[in-house]
Design goal:
heterotrimer; A alpha/beta (584); B mainly alpha (150); C alpha+beta (249); A: 584 residues; alpha/beta; globular; C: alpha+beta; Ubiquitin-like (UB roll); Fumarate Reductase Iron-sulfur Protein, Chain B, domain 2; 2 domains; elongated
Chain lengths: 584, 150, 249
């Protein structure tokens, strides 16, 4: 370990130790063991938010299923904004990746004959969701993490927070990171950097996302000059527990759960999602896509048919008819979460739920190999936007996305790093600037000034108001004004904590700055998209407009810090835009 | 309400500097108190169970004395009985019996954890294993009783 | 119910404090608030210098383990109302070196974990297996190890284990449970390799079967059982080695 500005040099540096980051690390270790790979993450890898994924991972394996059907479900689910070449590659490689995880020990739930079992999921026409009870993400992450331990040559920097990408002449050369335990701020240079830092649900007040999901990778890339894509598309999951926002998996509905309003009525039948049947029908009713289900909830609120709770209006998820045996074998975590956090037993009682911010369809714009327009920078997982999810992601597509594109980004980064030249000396000066910024401007600042928590609350309130399930031009413009004001004020936050060791106040200040940049991108993209598509529903432009908006929106950061939005085409191969039909 | 184990002061220990730099880690390593086992009922029961092995050993020694005395003839055996009836040996044996019972009960309770018994692909419930042990104990004790009193 | 409750929090800032001391905060007592919500209230509204780890607040990431009223707990799943009227003492997890406030150093566990080889060991490397072939595993075979695969590495078992407290060399409950998880997996052939590690002096024989690890485990993993089964396995191996000629083992 060096005490200079540059602490270590690697070939490939992976930022983020969740599903995508670990898959990338293992891919590189297997492709070329001579490459020097490191994973830097602000938490221990097994704390990454992949751990919270519950329902499952989609991959075609059943005899009656086909790759084309998975493609069609994904493309129509995306409201035709997904890039179809990427979707085809994803669907083709997802089963291989899931089988690889099987070989690595993932405890997939099984059929009596020992084959991997699959379950139904929202927006999917066939049963193709692999699952490990309802702790799929937990088991996948721990399998990946434990398998990564086999590769002792992969260096890990646990609990180190990356504050900046080092860029020279349009190429990425490494990062500056704070070691949380020691407070040491140093550069880690690398020929290629892969971002796998997950989503940014924390820009909203009510989210299933963990405390760590502050969009760090998106902000790093954006400031370094890489554009963000499809940022206006924010997924609301229809079933979160009130107050905590804890997710109740879609698998609860796939196994037969019903959504009912205050009259005990399965209200989804009023929203063109099909007719209620006693047992679940694929692509119908409770197994419709998440955007449509969350929108139906808002209409129920308007009709006064929801139940009032201390934490706003709710509806109920009814699992009682499924019985204790099925719930305990297929949905044990749902029962555990309800018992522990709501003190209700879903075997006998209704579960209160409401829509909750869950996933960012948008992210760092990449090609099909995870490469961003910035040379040497790659991204995968929720941080990235390839895009396979378009305007709305289907449940159980995100876990295999982490694997497929984590592996692809890893391999591409390895190839790039093998050919890349030396790190230029100018990088050291850049790193020195960043160290000074952090040490003098932030750590030396002292108490007083703006409160981080207060600014964060105001940002979250502004985003909920402006970028909720339904949006309008004026509310988004007003939200953007609030954000601009907050951007001014964030420069004056006070830092009472001057300690080097595990300074979570410093961390919170840096995360807040990241979230403000991302919030701005979400609203700027949203303002430009004058149509309603998937998760982006504008009451002032209620129809989809393929003429003007069958296109991705890219947000670039200008040198003066403002956002510029431009367009890039959607790739259409075999599925021309059509109507999204569910339940018919 | 009362709670076990609530510490009254932060545990004592020593900070351990590593390097003199301002960014060097200075971890605080708490020391384990000599009386740690009095903090929780479960720790206390554990230490008592460990202690019970001394009394198990005592019974072995006692048995050896008995065998030795029997081997040396009737007089020696009677001397042994006199000695065994002395108040302090009786007291010791009563205490030892209590500890041996504790030993047996706690180990019986722990057995299901140490041995996963699977019959026809299904795990046998812990209560059945524990019940099996007590049944075994009763059968063996009955046999011994029969052997002694017949 | 009173409308506030006192938290007695252990503070330690290595830059300035020679040793930990108590600091008290009054936080709102609401029925849905956990100890973690109380700490976040302090962090956001009262004292921004308090440091602690947390992330998922749904009991699956394993970050927020602390000693609450002397018991190792996940603070996201420990309700303030269950500790009313208070005060509630909140300390860093016992048996670990303290980095700062409620943050402990986990590097010891992170170094021990790879030693038990917690990955599938199989003569057929996955790259040599056809990509469309899965190893068959019946629900009963899955059931055999499932329980031991539920560990979230929250470290509560280490904080509860007096053996680990007295001898930090002891490899510890979670690591041994993970070894057992892979041993019991029908796809694994690495039992022998792991046993070699676990019969060393800092392995399973360090455990004196206190059983606290199992009692505090929030995921019902039962590490104590894993350790005892390992002892049994090791004993059988020793007996076999003693009785059987080399080839027959």
């Amino acid at each position: 370990m060096s005490d200079g500005v540059i602490r270590a040099a690697h070939d490939v540096l992976i930022v983020g130790g969740g599903g995508a980051g670990l898959r990338a690390a293992i891919a590189i270790a297997e492709v070329d063991p001579r490459l020097d790979v490191a994973v830097v993450s602000k938490v221990y890898p097994m704390r990454s938010h992949t751990v919270s994924a519950e329902g499952g991972a989609a991959g075609v394996i059943a005899a009656d299923d086909s790759l084309d059907e998975h493609c069609y479900d994904t493309v129509s689910g995306s409201d035709w904004l997904g890039d179809q070449d990427a979707v085809e590659a994803f669907v083709r490689e997802a089963p291989e990746e899931l089988l690889r995880l099987e070989h690595w020990g993932c405890p997939w739930s099984r059929r009596p004959d020992g084959r991997v079992a699959v379950r139904a999921f929202g927006g999917m026409k066939k049963k193709r969701t692999w699952f490990a009870a309802d702790k799929t993400g937990f088991h996948m992450l721990h399998t990946l993490f434990q398998t990564s331990l086999k590769h002792g040559e992969v260096t890990r920097y646990d609990e180190e927070f990356v504050t900046r990408l080092l860029v020279d002449d349009g190429r990425v050369h490494g990062v500056v990171a704070i070691g949380l335990l020691t407070g040491r701020i140093q550069a880690l240079t690398a020929k290629a950097v892969v971002l796998g830092t997950g989503g940014c649900g924390k820009v909203f007040p009510f989210t299933t996302n963990a405390n760590i999901n502050t969009g760090d990778g998106m902000a790093l890339a954006y400031r370094a000059g890489a554009p963000l894509k499809d940022m206006e598309f924010v997924q609301y999951h229809p079933t979160g527990l009130p107050f905590t926002g804890i997710l109740i998996t879609e698998a609860a509905r796939a196994e037969g759960g019903w959504l009912i309003n205050k009259d005990g009525y399965r209200y989804l039948q009023d929203y063109d999602l099909g007719r209620p049947t006693p047992t679940p029908e694929l692509r119908s009713m409770e197994l419709g896509p998440r955007d449509r289900l969350s929108q139906a909830f808002v209409h129920e609120v308007e009709k006064g048919r929801t139940v009032d709770s201390p934490y706003g209006p709710i509806v109920h998820l009814d699992l009682r008819h499924l019985g204790a045996k099925l719930i305990d074998t297929k949905l044990p975590f749902v029962r555990e979460l309800c018992l522990k956090y709501e003190r209700i037993d879903p075997v006998h009682e209704l579960i209160p739920v409401r829509p909750v911010v869950h996933y960012m369809m948008g992210g760092v714009s990449t090609d099909i190999d995870g490469a961003t327009p910035l040379a040497g920078l790659y991204a995968a997982g929720e941080t990235a936007c390839v895009s396979i999810n378009g305007a709305n992601r289907l449940g159980s597509n995100s876990l295999p996305e982490c694997l497929v594109f984590g592996a692809r980004a890893g391999r591409a980064a390895a190839e790039y790093a093998s050919a890349a030249g030396r790190t230029p000396a100018v990088v050291e000066a850049q790193a020195g600037d960043e160290v000074r910024r952090l040490e003098q401007d932030l750590l030396g600042r002292g108490p007083g000034g703006e409160s981080i928590a207060a600014l964060r609350d105001q940002m979250q309130a502004a985003m909920e108001e402006a970028a909720g399930i339904f949006r309008t031009g004026p509310t988004m413009a007003k939200g953007a004004d609030t954000l601009a004001e907050l951007q001014e004020r964030v420069g004056n936050v006070g830092l009472a904590d001057t300690s080097r060791s595990f300074n979570t106040e410093l961390l919170a200040a840096l995360e807040l700055a990241n979230m403000l940049d991302i919030s701005e991108c979400i609203l700027q993209s949203g303002l430009q998209r004058e149509e309603s598509r998937g998760a982006h529903q504008r009451t002032d432009f209620p129809a989809r407009d393929d003429e003007r908006f069958l296109t991705h929106l890219l947000v670039h950061r200008e040198s003066d810090g403002t956002a510029r939005v431009d367009r890039s085409p959607v790739t259409i191969t075999r599925w021309p835009p059509g109507e999204r039909v569910y339940g018919r | 309400m009362t709670r076990s184990g609530g510490a009254t002061t932060p545990s004592r220990g020593t900070p351990t500097p590593s390097g003199g730099t301002p960014t060097g880690l200075r971890l605080y390593r708490p020391r384990v108190s000599t009386w740690w086992w009095t903090r929780k009922r479960s720790y206390l029961v554990f230490v008592m169970r460990e202690l019970s092995s001394v009394f198990v050993a005592w019974f072995v020694v006692y048995l050896l004395f008995l065998v030795h005395a029997v081997g040396r003839g009737e007089a020696a055996y009677l001397r042994f009985l006199d000695w065994a009836a002395s108040p302090w040996v009786t007291l010791l044996n009563v205490v030892a019996l209590a500890f041996v019972l504790l030993h047996a009960v706690t180990w019986f309770a722990l057995t299901p954890q140490a041995m996963a018994v699977r019959v026809a692909g299904r795990t046998v419930p812990p209560v059945h294993i524990i019940a099996g042990q007590y049944t075994g104990l009763v059968v063996v004790s009955g046999f011994v009783l029969w052997l002694v009193t017949r | 119910m009173a409308d506030s409750i006192r938290l007695r929090v252990s503070r330690y800032r290595p830059d300035t404090d020679p040793e930990p001391h108590w600091q008290e905060y009054d936080v709102p007592l609401r029925k849905e608030w956990t100890v973690l919500d109380g700490l976040n209230h302090v962090k956001n509204e009262v004292d921004t210098t308090l440091s602690f780890r947390w992330s998922c607040r749904m009991g699956i990431c394993g970050s927020c383990g602390m000693n609450v009223d002397g018991e190792p707990r996940l603070t996201c799943a420990t309700f303030l109302s269950d500790h009313a009227p208070g005060p509630v003492t909140v300390e860093p997890l016992a048996n670990f070196p303290v980095v700062r406030d409620l943050v402990v150093d986990l590097s010891d566990f992170m170094a021990k974990l790879p030693r038990v080889k917690p990955w599938i060991i199989h003569p057929d490397d996955h790259r040599t297996v056809e990509p469309d072939v899965e190893y068959l595993q019946t629900p009963e075979q899955l059931d055999a190890y499932k329980q031991f695969s539920m560990c979230i590495n929250c470290m509560l078992c280490y904080a509860a284990c007096p053996v680990y407290g007295l001898d930090p060399e002891f490899i510890g409950p979670a690591a041994i449970a993970l070894a057992e998880r892979y041993d019991l997996d029908s796809r694994d052939r690495g039992e022998r390799e792991r046993l070699d590690v676990l019969v060393e002096h800092d392995g399973v024989y360090g455990c004196t079967f206190v059983g606290e690890c199992t009692r505090v485990c929030p995921k019902h993993v039962d590490p104590a059982a894993a350790i005892q089964r390992y002892k049994l396995k090791a004993a059988m191996e020793t007996v076999k080695a003693f009785l059987l000629p080399r080839g027959a083992r």
